């Protein structure tokens, strides 16, 4: 009777551990994506601020706002272009093997 109790709980613990590992991996993946997103925003801020803002004021003027919007849009376009190009190169090299 005691062995039945221990064997049942051992199986339950194994299943919980496997489920916990999957949940932990998903949590870590989400946190990594958040960190990458925040790093990307920080990079936008640094690059586009230097490019578009001559002297900070209490409000953005129309020219500065347009510059910032265009800067971020082009930055995203270039990032996607580079990412897609690397993906194509990896796919070619993987299919060539």
- Could you say which structural class the secondary elements and strand pairing correspond to? mainly alpha
* Tally of individual helices: 2
H and E string: HH
Q: What is the molecular shape? A: flat
Mean of all residue-level pLDDT scores: 81
Annotate the secondary structure layout.
Elements: H1 2-52, H2 62-95
Helix pairs in contact: 1-2
In short:
With 97 residues, this protein is mostly helical. The protein is 88% helix and 0% strand.
Structure description:
By secondary structure, this protein is mainly alpha-helical. It is built from two helices and no strands. The longest helix has 51 residues, at 2-52. It starts with a helix and ends with a helix.
Label this structure with key terms.
single chain; 97 residues; mainly alpha; 88% helix; disordered N terminus; 2 helices
